[in-house]
Design goal:
The chain has one domain: PRC-barrel domain (SH3 type barrels), CATH 2.30.30. The protein has three helices and six strands. By secondary structure, it is of the alpha+beta class. A six-stranded mixed β-sheet has the order 4-3-2-1-6-5.
């Protein structure tokens, strides 16, 4: 059976429109900018956001520094509270630091 196109109410949030938005923790820290997202094509859901980290938080989050590019991390969507003018996380920077330390060690 063929599905027919439907009309959406409201404006869709396209990925290209949200790239570059600041990513903010619950304690008000701007950790970087949204660079993209990982999509699970089997379920068509976004599994994590790709964040280019600000230089000032790379060490604080215990992330390995790449030689020639900006450090990037994948933040699972369960850490995202809201996406609007900024990406608001539902956790603070110390919790994120512990998560990245656990995943790298």
């Amino acid at each position: 059976m063929k599905e027919t196109p439907t009309v959406t109410s409201g404006k869709p949030l396209e990925m290209g429109c949200i790239e570059g938005r600041d990513v903010i923790t619950t304690d008000g820290r701007d950790i970087g900018n949204l660079a993209g997202a990982w999509l699970d094509v089997s379920t068509w859901t976004v599994t994590s956001l790709i964040v280019e980290l600000d230089k000032t938080v790379v060490d604080e989050l215990n992330v390995k520094k790449p030689m020639l590019r900006t450090a990037r991390v994948n933040i699972p969507t369960n850490y995202v509270r809201n996406i609007a003018d900024v990406v608001q996380l539902n956790t603070d920077i110390s919790t994120l630091s512990a998560v990245f330390s656990t995943n790298q060690g």
